[in-house]
Amino acid sequence: MPVSSLTQFCYEELSKYVKLERITGFEDIEQVKLLSGEEGGGIKLYKADKIDRISLVDFKYERGVPIPHHNNEISVGAEIFQILPDFSYKLPIWGINSVIFKDGRYNFDTDLSFGFDLVMDYAFTMKYLEPFDAVHKKFLTHKDFRVVPMSETTTWVRTYISPVFIIAETTTDKIDTVFELCAEFIKLWVRMYQEAEKVDDAFKERQKQRIKAQYDGMRQTDRMGKILLGVYGKETFAKFFKAMA
């Protein structure tokens, strides 16, 4: 059966390596309506050993909404997949975020978010990220992607990104190349996951605090929050926020 979305692909790919379990209590946001009454997609949540939450986010707004930071061009949806680890282990977050435009363009960014300083951990960096360098360069120069210049990102994004960050534009007819990229990131993340051992409480707390600081800053500079609030309304938006917090 053909894959219908980025989130479905990532879910199926991760499931090859990790047994996933549905998180209950959020069934009311799996299929939601827009304020207009139209179907608006939703969020599904999973968990696993060493993983606190896996988020599958599929937002749909078929009439379209203008995106201010994309020259008010019309978006018809967004797809987000994120793995949030249990910070009792030395593991990064992996996520990919996308915006789908009415004209078929597909903008995305993907990265690993580390709760510890890679500069202070040369051995870890070289063990896991150095072997990924060839894959990273392959996609940075891929004919199906136009890599977005750093000048088009925010100061905060440029502050917290990792060495494997990618932000690019493509089109929906080239989505298989995005899937290929995701498969490589998942393989990298799973390698770290399979070898991760428990850390002490102090290290766990440092990881949590660094990620909290990153996300606090992201909320301050968030450019999509107001758009989603306007499309889904305050009540549904609050449920989304609770699920992803």
Offer a concise description of the structure.
With 245 residues, this protein is an alpha+beta fold. It is built from eight helices and eight strands.
State mean pLDDT (0 to 100 scale): 94
State the low-pLDDT regions, or none. Answer: none
Distance between the termini: 33 Å
Q: Classify the fold: give the CATH topology.
A: oxygen-dependent coproporphyrinogen oxidase
CATH top level assignment: Alpha Beta
Taking Cα atoms only, what radius of gyration do you get, to the nearest Å? 18 Å
The outline comes out as globular
Give the number of domains.
1
Kindly report the spatial arrangement of strands forming the biggest sheet: 1-2-3-4-5-6-8-7
Strand content: 25-35%
Please provide the count of β strands.
Answer: 8
Order of helices and strands: HEEEEEEHHEHEHHHH
What would your notes on this structure say?
This protein has one domain: 3-Layer(aba) Sandwich (oxygen-dependent coproporphyrinogen oxidase), CATH 3.40.1500.20. The protein is built from 8 helices and 8 strands, in the order αββββββααβαβαααα. The protein has helices at 6-15, 122-129, 133-140, 155-160, 175-195, 201-220, 225-232, 234-244; strands at 21-22, 41-48, 51-67, 73-85, 93-101, 105-113, 146-147, 166-171. The protein has an 8-stranded antiparallel sheet with strand order 1-2-3-4-5-6-8-7, sandwiched between helices. α1 (6-15) runs parallel beside α5 (175-195). It is globular, with a radius of gyration of 18 Å. It starts with 5 loop residues before the first helix and ends with a helix. 27% of the residues are buried.
